[in-house]
Design a protein that fits this description.
This protein is of the alpha+beta class. The chain contains 4 helices and 4 strands. A 4-stranded antiparallel sheet has the order 1-4-2-3. Strand 2 and strand 3 form a beta hairpin. The chain is globular and about 45 Å long.
């Protein structure tokens, strides 16, 4: 629980592929003001910034429930993305779905009452 996988604004050292459990991407305005913006579940992964050509995440990422993850160092992962345009395209779809999840999470948190948010 709460094992940190990515640190905001720090170089991503590894990519984690979730086989079980749950991870959370957490956005922070300041230490006491934060919110979960993306949930990473079975068959999800960290390292979206690497897929899009960056080297660091704007958010922290934690394990939120007991999880089994496979990891890969960032350097060979980015090399694999360079060597395989089809792999990059496939993983960009995952990033797109994560972006959709984040946008609906923001919408629900901004516009719905607690009871409605918990029912989604």
């Amino acid at each position: 629980m709460r094992t940190q996988l990515e640190t905001a604004n720090a170089a991503i050292e590894a990519v984690y592929f979730f086989e079980t459990g749950i991870g959370s991407m957490v956005a922070k305005l300041r230490p006491e003001v934060d919110a979960e913006v993306i949930v990473i579940g079975f068959e999800g992964m960290t390292g979206s910034a690497l897929i899009m050509g960056g080297d660091r995440s704007p958010h922290d990422c934690y394990i939120q429930a007991d999880a089994e993850v496979a990891s890969m160092d960032a350097e060979p992962f980015t090399k694999a993305l360079s060597d395989s345009p089809t792999l990059r395209l496939f993983l960009l779809r995952y990033v797109h779905y994560a972006w959709i999840q984040a946008s609906y999470t923001a919408l629900a948190n901004a516009r719905l009452k607690l009871e409605e948010r918990l029912a989604r």
